[in-house]
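Annotated sample (chain length 158).
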Amino acid sequence: MQQNKIEEFAFLYLCGEDDRNLLLGNVSLSFEDFDRLTYLANHFGLQEYGAELWNRYGRAFHQQYELLGALSSGADCDAILRSVMDPEQDKNEEKKVDKENEQSQDINAEQKVFAGVTAYDKDVAMHEKWISDFCTNAPTAETRKFLQKLDRDLCTVE
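Output written by the structure step:
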């Protein structure tokens, strides 16, 4: 059996019923679920399965990751949304958007530094919640104890 299949079996065994249904395709997988589940697979050392999830679902969420990347780099939110909704209109307005971006570059740089710290703190808190919830939703007490051995700080046993 290939390593990614072994890790998939392990992850499905460890996760709660809702996550299992998402991963088995019984329920539609949202971008947020994809982000959370790939993070969790990698956090618990299942890198092969995390890569398999990317191979399986990554293309479906490619546009969302591009938007997140553009937003985190300080791009104009309105321009990004216009490009998604009407790519031709965006091409016609590129020069206008570039000029507006140049004028607000100094302000954006200051905001980005402040927002970067805040965004990082929010990401850390979100990841900690994902891990805690994953452990809490594990199917059995034995599974929760096993997960606690992997992450003593965030997985608590009832």
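Annotation: DSSP finds nine helices and no strands in the chain.
Annotation: Residues 94 and 149 are 52 Å apart (CA to CA).
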